[in-house]
Write a structure and sequence with these properties.
Blueprint: H1 15-18, H2 31-38, H3 48-51, H4 59-67, H5 71-79, H6 85-91, H7 113-126, E1 145-149, H8 153-165, E2 168-172, H9 181-184, H10 193-205, E3 209-211, H11 222-227, E4 232-235, E5 241-242, E6 255-257, H12 258-267, E7 284-288, H13 292-303, E8 308-312, H14 324-332, E9 336-338, E10 341-348, E11 354-367, E12 373-377, E13 383-386, E14 389-392, E15 396-397, H15 401-405, E16 431-433, H16 436-439, H17 444-465
Parallel strand pairs: 1-2, 1-4, 2-3, 4-16, 6-14, 7-8, 7-14, 8-9
Antiparallel strand pairs: 5-15, 10-11, 11-12, 11-13
Helix pairs in contact: 4-5, 4-7, 5-7, 6-7, 8-17, 12-13
Length: 468
């Protein structure tokens, strides 16, 4: 392929087939596709794509290795700055980050950086060749201990970066499985558990200790860690407090938050007959919201047997915050989009279970603080939508446990932990935070970027404290 030509499409499962199973939808590049796509890269000297990457992956360097057929070398190049390449290759919104800055995207299609990242990471994971031996940068740092609260993307990034430097890192996870939002929030058809487990095993191979079933804030407090031998603590406890509609009837049976629905499906395997996880078997499902979480909720609802699934969103298609790829996949699988529509109240049947939503039609006014046009109700436009299951996927605020059990910790009024943006440190010396615990629900890669900032801040803090 000539440089600058159209990029290679990603093979996918047929929509009619994939909507009935939890197998991965996007099937990945073949070696021939990856080599062909890599040839499109111009190898720009200014590296604009790197500037768009929150974890600073050396993109032209890893693509150059693909061109040479050195796929494991390409994967190792990515791992210099990104401990979760197979994850990022699947769920990172590259179109808004590295690929957005690709020169080829000015007049055509950018290089498929995310697809190439996935290819080389998967290639290395599947390779039978001996994995490179890990050696920390400075073994003398092993006597300094860092605790990481939460095993989501920000926590795994902090842990990996500090372990590579030589620190002793212990991670604490409240749940019985490791991975945070990567495991309970993202469905298997987007991120297979075998892939996630392999990435976690890589972090463990760096010498990181991971302890599940420990609820920091209940089992012990954050300050206990600082007082009992840890030189620094990072809080990456995520965003698990759902935003609900707060309209009449929201307590009816059959109404879930997006977080609860996805946790039951993804972590507790409610779709499998081998698990006893309780979940309402849906027929007519309405999902409120239009972000990536909403798309995941709609597509999992189809896969557990829903006869119809409808997205209800108060703005128009152009304002939908989900990735274009996720919207297209949902449409292909049969999800219906009811736009410029907003629920007014939920209606329950005689048994107290939701049976309909009363909605209002909306029209778009002037832009609000988000830059999107503000939805305005159309007076007298009420109508009902029948449903037996409602999933409210409007985002999530930070988990409250850490902030409510850490005396003196400064937080935003809505729950986000306040940090120094340059270092990731809170107002409590030695206590750092990042990811959704700081920002509220955001993307995996932004949480990872915050983890890298905090890892650097922790390294500088410990070295300054002990005059290293």
């Amino acid at each position: 392929m000539a440089k600058g030509g159209p990029r290679n499409p990603m093979p996918h499962q047929d929509p009619k087939v994939r909507a009935t199973n939890f197998e991965e939808v996007a099937m990945g590049y073949t070696e021939a596709m990856a080599l062909d796509e890599a040839q499109r890269c111009l190898g720009c000297k200014a590296h604009p794509c790197v500037k768009g990457c929150p974890v600073n992956v050396h993109i032209p360097d890893f693509i150059a290795k693909i061109k040479d057929g050195d796929y494991i070398g390409a994967s190792e190049e990515i791992k210099l700055t990104n401990a979760l390449p197979s994850v990022c290759g699947r769920v990172c919104p590259q179109e808004n980050q590295c690929e957005k800055h690709c020169i080829l995207g000015i007049k055509g299609e950018p290089v498929a950086i995310g697809r190439l990242e996935r290819f080389v990471a998967d290639y290395q994971a599947a390779s039978e060749k001996e994995k490179p031996e890990f050696k920390p940068l400075d073994a003398s740092l092993a006597k300094y201990k860092v605790a990481v609260v939460g095993t989501g993307p920000s926590g795994l990034t902090v842990a990996a970066d500090l372990a590579k430097l030589g620190y002793s890192v212990t991670m604490f996870e409240a749940l019985h499985k490791i991975g945070g939002v990567l495991r309970y929030g993202i469905p298997e058809f987007r991120l297979p558990r075998t892939v996630l487990d392999a990435e976690i095993d890589y972090v463990k191979s760096l010498g990181v200790t991971i302890l599940p079933n420990i609820i920091v804030g209940r089992t012990f407090k954050v300050k206990d860690l600082l007082e009992q031998g840890y030189d620094a603590v990072f809080v990456g406890s995520g965003a698990g407090a759902p935003k609900m509609m707060k309209i009449p009837g929201e307590g009816a049976a059959g109404i879930y938050s997006g977080n609860e629905w996805l946790t039951r499906i993804n972590l507790m395997r409610a779709y499998s007959d081998d698990y006893d996880t309780p979940i309402r078997k849906p027929k007519k499902v309405c999902v409120i919201g239009a972000g990536n979480t909403a798309m995941d909720c709609t597509r999992t609802a189809l896969r557990v047997g829903a006869e119809s699934v409808t997205i209800v969103y108060r703005r128009g298609r152009e304002e939908m915050p989900a990735r274009a790829e996720e919207i297209e996949n949902a449409e292909e699988e049969g999800v219906v989009f009811k736009l410029l529509t907003n629920p007014k109240r939920f209606i329950a049947d005689e048994d107290g279970a939701v049976c309909a939503m009363e909605c209002l039609k909306m029209e778009l006014g002037e832009p609000d603080d988000s830059g999107r046009r503000r939805p305005v109700p159309v007076e007298g436009s009420e109508f009902n939508i029948e449903c037996d299951t409602v999933i409210v996927a409007l985002g999530q605020n930070p988990n409250p446990l850490i902030r409510t059990t850490t005396e003196g910790l400064e937080c935003q009024s809505w729950g986000g932990i306040i940090i120094d943006e340059e270092t990731g440190m809170t107002n409590i010396p030695g206590l750092f935070a990042g990811g959704d615990a700081v920002t509220g629900e955001a993307t995996v890669i932004l949480a990872m970027g915050a983890g890298k900032v905090a890892a650097k801040g922790i390294d500088n803090y410990i070295k300054s404290k002990y005059n290293l």
